[in-house]
Amino acid sequence: MYQAKVDIPETMLVWPLYGVGLENLGRNGQPARWPVPRPAPDQILVRSDAVGLCYSDVKILRLGRDHPRLYGRDLEHHPIVQGHEVALTVVEVGEAWRDRFRPGQRLALQADIYYRGFNLAYGYVFYGGLAQYSLLGPAALAGDEGCYAIPVPEGLGYAETALTEPWACVEAAYTPRRRLHVKPGGVLWIIGRRGLDAPYVLGRTFAEGLPHKIVLTDVPNALACQLGGPEVADRPQEVIARNGVPPSGYQALARVEAGGAFDDIIVLEPEAAVIDALSPVVAAGATVNLAATRPLDRAVQVDLGRIHYDYIVYLGTRGSDIGAAYGPVRNRSELRRDGVVWVVGGGGPMGRMHLQRMLEMPPSAGPRQVVVAETNTLRSAEITHTFAGPAAAKGVELTVLNPRQMTADAFDAALRAAHGGGGFDDIVVIVASAPAVAAAMPHLAPDGMLQVFGGLARGTEASLDLSNVYLGSAQLTGSAGSTIRDQAAVITKVRLGHLSTASAVAAIGGMSAARDGMQGLIDGRFPGKVVIFPQVETFPLTALADLEMVAPAVHKQLGPGGAWTRQAEAEFLQRYAGDAYRLQEFQM
Length: 588
Hints:
Structural class: alpha/beta
Number of domains: 3
Largest sheet: 8 strands, mixed
Strand content: 15-25%
C-alpha cells in the first residue's frame, strides 16, 4: 500500500495563472516556487498527489477574470492556481479538525464547493492541485453540503482517485436531480392565448404541493376556475390574471410578479414567439411544460447554457391533462434499456468515459447499439481500437462515424440507418457546440432524451424544434458538475472493482509538464486524460504508449491494452518522486 511521508518542505512548486492564455501560466513557461503554507487552527494542509487536467481548465485560460467562477478577480495581482481533479494526502491538521483528520490520510475532493450560498470551487477560487501543497478550511470541510473532502480507502491509486471527480460528472448525468414537479412555494406562470377553449385539467400538476403565487395570462376560463376548485381549495395561494402580455413584455412581467424569473411555466398551445421569449424569465431549476396538440410552425430559440448549468427542463404533453407531463415515469434520467444511443463528440476524455460507462452497464440495463460521432481522425480510430472488443463481448453494436470523412447526406443517412428511421432513444452531446445540439435534435426519437453535457456558456442559444417534446414526450435536459454523493458513489464502485477510472489515463507528467499538458488539451493531442503528479518535479509529458522509450520499467507495469495501473503508478513514483513517498508492500 502507499504510506505517505509527512515531512513538510519549506517551499513548493506552483503554477499560478496571472491572466488570459498559456503565456500567463507560470512565469516564462516555468512554475513558481512559493513558501509552503501552514494551517490555521480551522484548516488542514494537504499534499497534491495527482491532478487530472480538464477542459474546464482551458476555459479558465481563455476567459481569465471573465470566467463566471472567478468573479472578476484581478489575476495579475491575485493569481489563481488551477487543478480541481485531485488526489490529496493530509500532512498537517489544525487543532479544530484533529478529531476528523490525521496526517497520512488519503482524500478525494468534490471541487464544486458551496459555502454560505457562494460557489468557491477548488482550483478556481481556492488554490488547486497545481500547487504541491494547499489548504482546506471551513468552506471545504464544513460547507453548505457538508464535508467536500472524501476519505479514500487504502489501496486506491492516486490517478484513479483524482479521476473520480470527472467520473462523478459522468455518473451525475444519469442520476435523477432535476425537478419534475411544480415547485411548492414558488411562482408559477400559466400562459394561454386568446380564443383557446380546450378542456384542460390540472391532473397531477400540484402533486408535490402548491406554488405561492400563480400568474395567469389569457388562460381559458374553465381552467382558471379549477384553480379555485376542490383540487386546491384548502391551500393558500395567490392567483393573479395578467392578460394581453406580449412576448416583448415577459421580462417586465417577471420582474413585477416573480422577482425576475418564474420557477415554473406552463404554456398552452404555444406559438413559437412565446417560447422564444421564455429563456430569460425562467429561474434556475425551472420546468417549462408545453401542453399542445399541433406542431410548432418553426424552430424556437432555446438557451442551451441554462439547460446545462441551471438544470432547466423542457417537458410536455399532447393531451388536455397538464399534469401528465410531470413525474419520473415520463422523465427518466438513465439510458433506455436495450436502446440505441448516439454520442456526439465521443472521442475526447469525457466522451470516452460516457462510452465506457455504457459498455460496463449490466446487460439487462444497457443499450444494444451505440453510435459515436467524432471528427478527429486519430480519436475516431482510437475509439474503435479501444472499445470494439469490449462492445462485442457485451453484445453491443458499436458504430464509429467521422462526419469530416463523409458528405452531409451520407452522414445523415448513416445515422438514420443506425436508428432505423425511428430516432435515437438517447443522444448525449459531449461537445460544447450549439450547432451540434441543433443537428442532433431531429434525430431524437419520441420519448427520447437529449442530454446537453458539453459546457456551453449561459446565453448560448440554438434554434430547435421542440414539437417532439410535447407531441412525443421527448426530453431536452442537461447536466453540469456533480455532488459529494456522486463522487462518493464512484469511489465505492472503484473500491468494489465495478469501475476502472484509471483506464481513462492517456498521458502522464511531472509538475514541470503541467503547461505542456494544458497545451495538449488545447490541441486535442490525447484521446484520454492527462494526469500530472505534482510530487514528481521533472518528468516530461508522455503518452502511455511512449513510456516504453522514456520509462521502460513503468511501461512494463501497464495493463492490457497499455492501460494505467496501480502497479505502474507505484513504479513511477518510486523511481521519479524522490523521497516524497515511501512505497511499501503494494497490493491490488
